[in-house]
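Hey, quick one: can you model this chain's 3D structure?
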Amino acid sequence: RLVGSEMCIRDSLYVADKSSIIGIIAVKDVVKPSSYLMIKNLNKMGIDSVMITGDNKYVANSIAKEVGIKKVVSDVLPDDKEKEVRKLQDDGKKVAFVGDGINDSPALARADVGIAIGNGTDIAIESADVVLMKNDLMEVITSIKLSKKVISNIKMNLFWAFSVSYTHLRAHET
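Sure thing. Here's the predicted structure for all 174 residues.
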């Protein structure tokens, strides 16, 4: 019987001889250091994070706790990731979904903004609105900051365009 680490392993490999199990190899995903930093920065920006994963609840909760994610939806089949994104949208949320695998493609396409990690599968990259060229989740934060600056510049440009047009029209009326 596997005792202790069973709550946070991803997969178990059993080693056996002809009559019995003689060992178990537990495999756990290594969390990227940038994962914690990304979640910390999203929290600072007032952006809620939700982990939607096919991993079992023990693995998912262990990883979520490690990186600071408070809401976890685990044991999700690939097609159900898209349904979970839709539920968030139906609740009035704007959803950005970050993924890299073929299983993430429907959710990437459904999200208001799909963000693919550049080293992900071709279908994930094709399904996304934004493709991060580096395998660094802090690029998600960079993308959000950049998009906010772009929107700010667009608003400023529209303000000046309307102001100049209005002033020009007023000058011709007199």
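One thing worth noting: The radius of gyration is 23 Å.
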